[in-house]
């Protein structure tokens, strides 16, 4: 099953992406699959913040782990709704999620 996730890029364009829930992907990998400008230089280990995004609506997300929290405490452009895309697995509960890519560091 796919879920619909909307991601606003750094130019303000909203992309409506079909995200598969059966491939163990995360938001960073989804962005890369659709060729959105997300580097993910650490490979999804919560060590670079290049996949930082802002959560724009109220969708239940997994709790933020210690590694993600530590990385965001050192990252640029962090807001109260910041998350690392690599730490958000794509599941059916993300249906309708709206995100905005953070500025590049």
TrEMBL record:
Gene Ontology molecular function, alphabetical: 2 iron, 2 sulfur cluster binding; electron transfer activity; metal ion binding
Database matches in InterPro entries: 2Fe-2S_ferredoxin-like_sf, 2Fe-2S_ferredoxin-type, Adrenodoxin-like, Beta-grasp_dom_sf
Residues of the 2Fe-2S ferredoxin-type domain: 1-105
Transmembrane segments: none
GO BP of this protein: P450-containing electron transport chain
Record's keyword terms, sorted: 2Fe-2S, Iron, Iron-sulfur, Metal-binding
Keyword flag tRNA processing: no
Protein name (database record): Ferredoxin
Organism: Flavobacterium laiguense
